[in-house]
Amino acid sequence: MMKIRIGTRSSDLAISQSKTVANSLLDMGYQSQLITIDTAGDLSDETTFSNIGPIGVFVKEIENALIDGEIDLAVHSLKDLPTVSPKELTIAAISERVDPADIIISNKNYYDNSLGLIPLKEGSVVGTSSARRKSWLRHFRKDLKIKPIRGNVPTRIKKINQGYDAIVLANAGVKRLLDDGFDLNLDEFSVTRLDPEEFIPAPAQGAIALQCLKGNKNLSKVIKNIADIDSTKDINLERLLLAQFEGGCELPFGAYCRSPKGDTGDINLFARLELDKELIEARVSGKNRQIIFKKAMEILTNYE
User: CA–CA separation, 78 vs 208, rounded Å?
Assistant: First the structure.
């Protein structure tokens, strides 16, 4: 049987994610090989995503490799994927989501848990290049100094104490690296999980997307075995909202959907958008995702 060629970014996190997919395929009896591909986002030295190019700066080259037949399957952090894919491609599966929350990793000398959601001492220098994270940090703590930062997860952690007092990362990425055996030396720092209902994450944060050619029906059928139905339903609602405000990495927008375990209880959606330096927030609960979406859109678009 021919090996399934998996295309991935070359970062430690991307490779860890792809190895997880490769192991799932192996459990089903399919061999695979990883092919690393550098994207515009990886190659750029810019610290602000809008200076790199349009949306999709971390996926376009991988998608092109799929279309050109250089790989069979692409593994992406779903939050990096635009809501509209090239017409030749499809998201065949969304895997089970890891914790969607952000975390703050800080120098212990700058940690102060008496200061609420963002437990950092006044005037701390916080590293992030995410428009969403910058907006939320300024909203909760106007005293903090926000400084751009780039690099993979281990590189950014090493920059703490080197011009930064703290950084903000996705907890899922840190968890995946730790599960893959990386020593991130987190014992040296204070680590705080930010409640995703308050510090609302990027849509689909913590999820992996498996993308292939629409015409590759056999592979799509195999990949669907990796899909997590519950995660997919929540994430599709988050991305449906994102599609209405598509702005790539420079859009200060967050959405988080949390469904109850089992068949009882409400679905909860939390969304936030920055417009004209004002934050608009929607918190909607209910049983029907379509109705929840409509209510959230009414709140987010009727702002005056």
Answer: 5
Distances (CA, A) of 49 to 2, 41, 46, 278: 38, 8, 7, 21
| pLDDT tens digits, one per residue of 210-242 | 999 999 999 999 999 999 999 999 999 999 999
179 given a catalytic annotation: no
Active-site pick, 72, 80, 102, 234: 80
Closest CA to 194 of 260, 239, 261, 128: 128
Please tell me the distance from the alpha carbon of residue 169 to that of residue 106, in angstroms, as a whole number.
11
- The CATH architecture assigned to 4-95+207-228 reads 3-Layer(aba) Sandwich (3.40)
Contact of 67 with 88, CB cutoff 8 Å: yes
The CB density around residue 232, as the number of other CB atoms within 10 Å, is: 17
Output the 3-class SS for 60-104. HHHHHHHHCCCCCEEEEEHHHCCCCCCCCEEEEEECCCCCCCEEE
List, for residues 34-91, the tens digit of each pLDDT value.
999 998 877 756 545 444 344 678 899 999 999 999 999 999 999 999 999 999 999 9
* CB distance 41 to 79 below 8 Å: no
Q: Please give the Cα distance from 30 to 231 (Å, whole number).
A: 24
The fold for domain 243-301 equals Double Stranded RNA Binding Domain (3.30.160)
- Give phi and psi for 69, each to the nearest 5: 80, 15
Tell me if 21 sits within 8 A of 219, measured CB to CB: no
